[in-house]
Design a protein that fits this description.
Strand content: 5-15%
CATH topology of one domain: Arc Repressor Mutant, subunit A
Strand order of the largest sheet: 1-2
Shape: elongated
InterPro entries: HTH_HxlR (IPR002577), WH-like_DNA-bd_sf (IPR036388), WH_DNA-bd_sf (IPR036390)
Keywords: DNA-binding, Transcription, Transcription regulation
Number of strands: 2
Organism: Gluconobacter potus
Distance between the termini: 42 Å
Largest sheet: 2 strands, antiparallel
Protein name: Helix-turn-helix transcriptional regulator
CATH superfamily of one domain: Winged helix-like DNA-binding domain superfamily/Winged helix DNA-binding domain
CATH architecture of one domain: Orthogonal Bundle
Helix content: 40-55%
Length: 126
C-alpha cells in the first residue's frame, strides 16, 4: 500500500514504531473517535451527567430535569446509550410499567474523563 506522506497526521512528532499504534485503523485515534461518536448528540451528555448525579432515574424524572428535551429525543438517546452499553435499562415487569435507567459500569469509567474535559474547558482560554 502506497502512503501519501503529505497527509497532515504523518507530521505528528512520534516515532515510526508508535505511528501505527496511534494512527492505524486500530490505533488510539480510532478508539477516541468511537467514544466521541458514542456520546455525540445534543442530549447524551446531559443524560449521562444526570444519571451520574442520581444512581437510578425514570424517564419522566430525566424529562423534568433536562429542560428542553422532548419525549421523542429522550427515548431515542436513551436507546442509543443503551445500545452502546453506557446505560442500563431496568424493567421491573410490573402490571403498571415501571422502567428505570442507570449508568453502566463502562459509563462509570468514562465519567471521570468527561468531568476532566469539563474542567479543561473551564480552564481553557477562549
Amino acid at each position: 500500500m502506497k502512503v501519501d506522506r503529505t497527509i497532515t497526521h504523518f507530521k505528528v512528532p512520534i516515532s515510526p514504531d508508535h505511528r501505527e499504534a496511534c494512527l492505524g485503523p486500530d490505533g488510539a485515534a480510532a478508539h477516541v473517535i468511537r467514544v466521541i461518536k458514542m456520546i455525540q448528540g445534543r442530549w447524551k451528555l446531559p443524560i449521562l451527567f444526570r444519571l451520574f448525579a442520581d444512581p437510578t432515574m425514570r424517564s419522566s424524572q430525566l424529562s423534568r430535569d433536562i429542560p428542553g428535551i422532548s419525549q421523542k429525543m429522550l427515548t431515542q438517546h436513551l436507546r442509543a446509550l443503551e445500545k452502546d452499553h453506557l446505560i442500563e435499562r431496568i424493567d421491573f415487569n410490573e402490571k403498571r410499567p415501571r422502567v428505570e435507567y442507570r449508568l453502566s459500569e463502562e459509563a462509570h469509567k468514562l465519567m471521570p474523563i468527561l468531568i476532566e474535559a469539563r474542567i479543561f474547558f473551564a480552564d481553557h482560554p477562549r
